[in-house]
From TrEMBL:
Residues 62-187 form the Peptidase S54 rhomboid domain. It comes from Rubritalea tangerina. The chain crosses the membrane at residues 20-41, 61-87, 94-112, 118-135, 144-164. This is Rhomboid family intramembrane serine protease. Pfam families: Rhomboid. InterPro entries: Peptidase_S54_rhomboid_dom (IPR022764), Rhomboid-like_sf (IPR035952). It is an enzyme of class 3 (hydrolase).
């Protein structure tokens, strides 16, 4: 049996880098620019529609759609910072782990979201990263995780209030809550695992 080409093996074994996160952010900004300048925000209707069959299509699409540049800007920095911590801790599992958070958080949003609502934005994924990082920081017995958890709590601890209903403010607290729960579940599953 012939072995795979050495160059292809190296590519397959490469760990994702910070540039990967920047590429994802760039994609989100390009999509939002196209939506705002050419489609008058029409892409937003492809988000998650709770308990509608059509709304299930929004689960993998939700993180890439935003309600304007302000919404996207507010998600960019926490995505890069928490995403980088997640990337360093998960290594090549980062792709799989992010997909699991998107799937579980999106499905949870679809189940508990309000009727007639459309849920968009990367905040569900960001809350998933937050839940994952804080869970690992609490249950791991390693100083690095403890320090990381303290820093994340200092800079992003107020995110916890985002999982509560926001009254008339159009914020997807359901996406925040289910995304964070997905991250907590994943963090517990990956207790003790080193990055690959």
């Amino acid at each position: 049996m012939k072995s795979a080409h050495p160059k292809k093996q190296r590519i397959a074994q490469q760990r994702p880098t910070f540039m990967y996160l920047l590429d994802l952010v760039l994609i989100a900004w390009i999509i939002e620019a196209v939506d705002q300048f050419f489609l008058a925000g029409q892409l937003d209707r492809f988000g998650i529609h709770p308990r509608q069959a059509f709304g299930l299509l929004g689960i993998p699409i939700m993180p890439w759609l935003h309600g304007g540049f302000g919404h996207l800007s507010s998600n960019t920095v926490p995505f890069l910072t928490l995403g980088y911590i997640m990337l360093k801790s998960e290594g090549r599992r980062f792709y799989y782990s992010s997909a699991i958070i998107i799937l579980l958080g999106g499905l949870g949003t679809w189940l508990i979201g309000g009727t007639g609502e459309v849920h968009i934005g990367a905040s569900g994924l960001i809350y998933g990263y937050f839940g994952y990082v804080m869970t690992r920081a609490i249950i791991e017995s390693k100083p690095l995780w403890l320090i990381t958890g303290i820093l994340v709590a200092v800079f992003y601890g107020s995110m916890i209030f985002g999982v509560l209903p926001q009254g008339q403010i159009p914020v997807s607290w359901e996406g925040h809550l289910t995304g964070m729960l997905a991250g907590i579940w994943l963090g517990r599953r990956h207790k003790g695992l080193s990055s690959e």
